[in-house]
Amino acid sequence: MAAAILRRARSRRRRPPASPRRAHAGPAPPRARPAPSDPEGPAPRPTRSCRCRKWRRGSGLAWSMAGTRGVGREAAAAGSLPGKRPPEPEEPSLLGAPGLSPGPGSDPGLSDSEESVFSGLEDSGSDGSEADTAAEEEDGASSDEQHSGTEKPPGQQAGTPSPRTEVASVRLEDEYVEDSSDEEDIRNTVGNVPLEWYDDFPHVGYDLDGRRIYKPLRTPDELDQFLDKMDNPDYWRTVRDRMTGHSVQLTDEQVALVRRLQRGQFGDVSFNPYEPAVDFFSGDLMIHPVTNRPADKRSFIPSLVEKEKVSRMVHAIKMGWIQPRRPRDSTPSFYDLWAQEDPDAVLGRHKMHVPAPKLALPGHAESYNPPPEYLPSEEERMAWEQREPEERRLNFLPRRFPSLRAVPAYGRFIQERFERCLDLYLCPRQRKMRVNVDPEDLIPRLPRPRDLQPFPTCQALVYRGHGDLVRCLSVSPGGQWLASGSDDGSVRLWEVASARCVRTVPVGGVVKSVAWNPRPTVCLVAVAVEDAVLLLNPALGDRLVVGSTDQLLSAFTPPAEPAAQPAHWLEASEEERRVGLRLRICHGKPVTQATWHGRGDYMAVVLATLGRSQVLIHQLSRRRSQSPFRRGHGQVQRVAFHPVRPFLLVASQRSVRLYHLLRQELTKKLTPNCKWVSSLAVHPAGDNVICGSYDSKLVWFDLDLSTRPYRVLRHHKKALRAVAFHPRYPLFASGSDDGSVIVCHGMVYNDLLQNPLLVPVKVLKGHSLTKDLGVLDVAFHPTQPWVFSAGADGTLRLFT
User: Fold this and answer.
1) Domain ranges across the chain
2) Left (φ > 0), alpha (ψ -120 to 50) or beta: where does 299 sit?
3) How many C-alpha atoms does 649 have within 13 Å on its Cβ side?
4) Which pLDDT score is estimated for 227?
5) Where is the composition biased (Pro residues) (predicted)?
């Protein structure tokens, strides 16, 4: 304990405590000793219990004088007599001042300041006089050291040092030799307290006297640290003391200690971790045993505890709770990954293992000399090339070679091997637990077709007369007349009930579109021929309706200053009026479609061109034309007016856009996920839209639900050419190049929470394929559950 205290005091020697009063008070004069006549001297002050204060205030000099004091005590004990201690005579000082004799009760080898330090006479607690006295004692420590080190006993010459001085100098030299600064500096006495508690205070703790230890006035920032790093060569060995807030520079010994610890070595250099071990027990047989204790009785009596354990284990073996160990299997633990996986194999016992799918074995088609029935004909070869890669039954064409030597290298070998590797390690495989369910329960519960009647079921009439394929047809609002356009350059008007051709109007070009005006009080047919739209008055039906139509067209008064329009309105000549032609609207570009608004005054036209003028809207009453779009969005295929709202639906190749005509803004954009949209139809209620595509898909959109398809129907095998809704019944039909018309039941409920019911009810066939074309247009009767179809075989058919 004394050695530890001595080392700790030595570590304080290099930093003598700096009193705040010393800087301006100057050196304090030595304190006067008590008079020799007073043998007892003044009464000593109460000694403080904190010995740490004596170590800090005394510094290293006080401890160097401790050895001198011990020598003086020995001398006093050797030469003193019982009773009062005789006073020593005064000795001259080296500086000329008279030597002061120590008072009674003090050691002759100590000066006044040293004695006050060791006796605890300093006090920094209450008043300033005591603090000043402490400062004076501290300042006089160095001078008293010289006096105490140079005093000589009586009768000794000045040049001969006294034995006491020699002992003190020896102790002083030994102290510096054995000096060590490894002890921790504990000036901050806050103890084991988190220093984060002092973040909001100007100090970091308290010293031994209870005074605050203030933080540095200015905390160095990153710029100061960088400059210090550049300027200070010892920056790398400077660390910050968190207890005091100051920077401490490590010595070479401390740096070496840190490096040894970083390398995982011991801190003490002289420590040898590999010293030879000394065995306590010798390997040789000795005469005397280590212990001569007699053996216990339990060493040769059977243990009852072990007997009970053995009986329990025997009972467990009898009951079958403990099974004997199985002999180890000597077979190797590796296995063939690609071997046949049987249930007893390692992978077969793994429950979650899913074997990779096996490649199909080659058949006769892969042979270099296949049978003749496997070789494709020229038509089959062309059909195989026109199909999509994923739709082909075989990804190659069988060929015949005279010998195996003549077979060339397979061009898709590397691609197929790469796809096989992708299938092996990229395609996820999942084991699905098979549930015993009735296959009939997996089929959705659809109503029977007989419960969804009426709908067309059979062919009733065939309208013959066109010399070429019939591209379009339209039914009058009353359902009595039927108009059709063909590639033979004529428009024919038919009576629906009798299939009789009432009138034939030659137009001199391929008819792309025919549309009957939906107003019952107007008898007018729009015919799209080449780059013009012809307005015909067929003069069928009520004479009053025919006369009012001519009056409506002739009542127009042209404006004084005609405005520039994208189309030209021309009156028909007398010869054309005899045929039934009333107006001609010229566009300068080929017209592909013409459709009427529900009120019959506006008509939308699609032109086969690129740009913003693909769609034009004509107003019949004012004979005005306008282009509603500023820029185009792809090739426009079909347009349709919304039956209830002021919307215009424009179908391009990949999307369907819904425009608000009054606000002149885009409302919705429908994505049918088709390669090429071919046809468009709007439900009479206006909330649902169907689209047909050339990749044999029929897409149903619910405008209130999403812009994605609600249902995609793939009932046709070839491209869809036309789709149509029935204006009254929940029916819609689609015509395809496979020569069939599929009629579906499409019930739309008023309840928004109930989805539409889509059920295919009938497949109608009757048209023959011509030039790989089948049904080109379909239309429903306005009042009856009948459907009309126009085919490439030059006929029109009515299914009822």
Assistant:
1) 201-232, 457-554+566-799
2) alpha
3) 29
4) 92
5) 27-45
For residue 639, count CB atoms less than 10 angstroms from its CB and return exposed for 0-12, middle for 13-18, buried for 19 or more.
buried
The candidate with the shortest Cα–Cα distance to 713, out of 681, 685, 674, is 674
CB distance 28 to 135 below 8 Å? yes
Choose which CATH entry (3.30.450.40, 3.90.1510.10, 3.40.190.10, 2.130.10.10) describes domain 457-554+566-799: 2.130.10.10
In a 10 Å sphere around its CB, with 0-12 CB exposed, 13-18 middle and 19+ buried, how is residue 382 labelled?
Answer: exposed
Those residues whose C-beta lies under 8 Å from the C-beta of residue 404, and which sit 6 or more positions away, are 368
Both tokens of 459, joined, read 């062919």
Question: Long-range contacts for 607-614 (Cβ within 8 Å, ≥24 apart)?
Answer: 610/635, 613/566, 613/589
Rounded to a whole number, what is the largest CA-CA distance in the chain? 169
The per-residue pLDDT for 319 is 93
Stretch (H or E) spanning 440: helix 439-442
pLDDT in tens, 327-342: 888 877 776 655 555 5
Q: Is the dihedral of CA 389, 391, 393, 397 positive or negative?
A: negative
| Interatomic CA distance for residues 30 and 113, integer angstroms | 9
505 token code pair: 């109007």
Q: How far apart are the C-alpha atoms of 222 and 454, rounded to whole Å?
A: 89
Reduce the secondary structure of 106-135 to three states and give it as a string: CCCCCCHHHHHHHHCCCCCCCCHHHHHHHH
Determine contact, residues 394/365, Cβ cutoff 8 Å: yes
Residue type, 49: S
Of 765, 768, 774, 761, the residue nearest 799 (C-alpha): 765
Strands (E), 663-730: 665-670, 677-682, 688-693, 698-702, 711-713, 720-725
Residue 103 has pLDDT above 80, yes or no: no
In contact, 538 and 481? CB cutoff 8 Å: yes
Q: Model pTM? A: 0.49
Do 50 and 207 form a contact (C-beta atoms < 8 A)? Answer: no
